[in-house]
């Protein structure tokens, strides 16, 4: 199976590390022979139809910041042109996310579909904005689109609901879908510190981004919630339909008061047939949704299986690559039969 | 897809209820046309190659206790003979479990494989004792065996680890796999009551069985743990290899002491490459494994995705049937491609 990797930041590097680590295992256990034939970043691409040397690619990126510096096979070329011209089975789309336009990731996906390539993506932007259009185009061209990594990092949320709980109707989903805000609230609660102090510390530790707006405003959670609403519950919504309130106004005093009453305050995304909202909510202390630190969690209320809760790591290079790998394996299994 | 239902107790009835409820949905959403051509219990069977009336079957069973009383198509016939002689795609094996011999369920499974029928089972006995033999025979005959419902009821544990986390190596599994003992411990802790008082109450409520030995001794958890060890971690063990301690010696005082130190005491099944044990363990109060009431939980420690935890309902007719239905749908999807 030939892979084009689009995007060579933290997640892209994680994907290469994981493929490198698992190459033999995948061949032996699943009969899957993975070969990365192109790697793209904003500098250009390295392209080799015989398969690139992944360790070398990681080394070149580390040293020069540019995959175009890859010896012999590196070149200055646009990503769309790579997707169009390089024969491959799957495009792994992990370019930077834009939750306002979905671009350029959306164009990469559509170009992949047009040229009959399956897509595995970790990109929230296009899916939170143009879910129906994008899945429609994939279907039209008879190719598979999978996107487990776009919500919850390593935590299997989308595939769990769609496949492992197949046959159930999911009536609602509630979850903590952003690790940064969960880390901040947990720390504020535990150490009785105010929001700005903890945010600053989280930024210094690299847990929160320099521009934390998307996390703390709830926008990141809203993007993920829109994806869950569309993919699992069959709703037709975008991030712009989500009723939104962030965590910036939460005080250590309110966390303490809630605690004394047997509750934690968490930034919860919730979708039902009628509701689509992200806001701070009280969660009973002994409830499975009350997870600590930067963990993510999703709870499905279903018609047959009652409530099912899944908890896991919401971010990280190798962790997110784990979700991407399971999507690749699922495509491989689908095609084998 | 033609189904033979073997076993018409609580779970068997749940399966028919769910098939009846979801018939149209399965056809519309998945293109799956399910028809139950035989239902067996210890009295005999109802057999109709055109498909049985499920509501009528449930009514007859309710009123007479015997499926053989089904009008026109009911008959006195052995289960093995039904499996052998009735053409069908899938045998749903939900006959009473025997964790000492695995019989007669094991013979039902093997007969199904020999006659080229796929099997979906909720039966712990055969799988906790003869995992390698049974999966080997299924493979030899080119048919599929699935058994999500054998561990954790509605909670997707086996399929989650094997499919949704595909590509990961599961390094250890820890879990609460028995709802009855979790209910008892939760109640003892909360209300500071002793073991026998809570057990008696649980029996009156129908949460614990009249003979609670398998639950409170940890044997039921051990059977499930052996299945997880074999199916997810590739170990070759049986229930007899599990180091075992039950919950009968736990006192409300020990639960209170643990609580004051920030812990709960839970009956934990744990498997690693070296360990295979069921015993009461301390779990930090704010840990995702600390689930209350009769909930089940499993935590996978993996090489890529870190820790993934899944929580759900461990018992119930419709809940267990949910896991069976997802297995049927997965077989249907596999065969379609």
From TrEMBL, chains A, B:
Stored InterPro entries: Asp/hSer_DH_NAD-bd, HDH_cat, HDH_CS, HDH_short, NAD(P)-bd_dom_sf
Keywords: Amino-acid biosynthesis, Methionine biosynthesis, NADP, Oxidoreductase, Threonine biosynthesis
Catalytic machinery residues: 224
UniProt EC number: 1.1.1.3
Pfam families: Homoserine_dh, NAD_binding_3
Ligand binding (NADP(+)): 7-12
Sites where the protein binds NADPH: 124
Domain of life: Archaea
Sample GO molecular function, one term: homoserine dehydrogenase activity
Binding site for L-homoserine: 209
Oxidoreductase keyword on record: yes
Residue stretches in coiled coil: none
Domain Aspartate/homoserine dehydrogenase NAD-binding: start-end pairs: 7-148
One GO term of the biological process aspect: threonine biosynthetic process
Residue ranges occupied by any Homoserine dehydrogenase catalytic domain in the UniProt entry: 156-329
Pathway named in the protein's UniProt entry: Amino-acid biosynthesis; L-threonine biosynthesis; L-threonine from L-aspartate: step 3/5; Amino-acid biosynthesis; L-methionine biosynthesis via de novo pathway; L-homoserine from L-aspartate: step 3/3
Family from the record: Belongs to the homoserine dehydrogenase family.
Identification of the protein by name: Homoserine dehydrogenase
Gene source species: Methanococcus vannielii (strain ATCC 35089 / DSM 1224 / JCM 13029 / OCM 148 / SB)
